[in-house]
Amino acid sequence: QVQLVESGGGLVQAGGSLRLSCAASGLTFSSYVMGWFRQAPGKEREFVSAISWNGFSTYYGDSVKGRFTISRDSAKNTVYLQMNSLEPEDTAVYYCAAQNARFGVVYYSQDRYAYWGQGTQVTVSS
User: Fold this and answer.
1) Are 38 and 48 in contact (CB under 8 A)?
2) Phi and psi at residue 38, in whole multiples of 5°?
3) pLDDT along the chain (126 residues), means of 10
4) Which residues contact 111 (CB under 8 A, 6 or more apart)?
5) Which region holds residue 105: left if phi is over 0, alpha if psi is between -120 and 50, else beta?
6) How far is CA 108 from CA 12, 16, 22, 45, 60, in A?
7) ∠ at Cα 13 (10, 18), nearest 5°?
8) What does the pLDDT read at residue 8?
9) Which pLDDT score is estimated for 44?
10) Does residue 21 contact residue 8 with C-beta atoms inside 8 Å?
11) Where are the beta strands (DSSP E) in the chain?
12) β-strand 3-7 against 78-83: which pairing, if any?
């Protein structure tokens, strides 16, 4: 049974930082692209970031480029999202997702991610 468990969300002031973690189990971690998506109230879920199966390539949504950094630790089966210079517009539920790297990877497409975590709330106050 595949499980993705996010942690690290919370309340932070604008300009602050948070680091999200996503611990994966029940899958061969090194065979999966890992992604982060977010959904703000009243808005559609959007792509935030993704990292290739080997960690060599990273991808970011335009709104977070230069502020967020994704990384992965294969020894811990965990993917991280370091979020700096947070803005109130970053307030959302953040979801971790896994996409099999063997089948035509599309990093930004939610439909290509087979497994999802339950989400963690990030709230940025102004």
Assistant:
1) yes
2) -145, 155
3) 97 98 97 98 97 96 98 98 98 98 90 97 97
4) none
5) beta
6) 26, 26, 18, 11, 9
7) 45
8) 98
9) 97
10) yes
11) 3-7, 10-13, 18-25, 32-39, 46-51, 58-60, 68-73, 78-83, 92-100, 115-116, 120-125
12) unpaired
What does the chain come to in residues?
126
**Both ends of the chain: CA-CA distance in Å?**
40
Phi and psi angles of residue 12, each rounded to the nearest 5 degrees, phi first: -145, 150
Query: 37 is written with which tokens?
Result: 């998506």
Nearest-angstrom CA–CA distance, 108 and 55: 16
Instruction: Give the amino acid at 28.
Output: T
Supply 103's token pair.
């089948």
Structure tokens at 101: 């790297």
Which pLDDT score, from 0 to 100, does residue 6 have? 97
Q: What is the token pair recorded at 61?
A: 């949504």
One-letter identity of residue 20: L
